[in-house]
Amino acid sequence: MSTIQTLTFQSTDGELAVPTMQNWHIVCPDKATVSERYAAEEFQKWFNQVTQLVLPFGTSD
User: Fold this and answer.
1) I need a surface site. Which of 11, 28, 29, 40 has the fewest CB within 10 A?
2) Cα–Cα distance, 35 to 32 (Å, whole number)
3) Phi/psi at 27 (nearest 5 deg)?
């Protein structure tokens, strides 16, 4: 059973608490398009370069 969560973002006055994201995961649907998968992989790469955190990448069931 899949659970969908909605993230609500609040202003942090320009500050981003990166350590709070260390347990996040990047998830693509099993039937993601090539461009969706590419976007997720690019996000993972650039997020790592900026924060030095590696967000695990996976697919949903």
Assistant:
1) 11
2) 8
3) -125, 130
Q: Which two tokens stand for residue 60?
A: 């949903």
CA distance 43 to 49: 10
The pLDDT confidence band at residue 5, using thresholds 50, 70 and 90, is low
Is-above-0.85 flag for pTM?
no
The answer to whether the CB of 27 falls within 8 A of the CB of 58 is yes
Sequence letter at residue 56: P
Residue 56 three-state SS: coil
Q: What is the pLDDT of residues 10-53, one digit of tens each?
A: 666 766 677 778 888 898 888 999 999 999 999 999 989 988 88
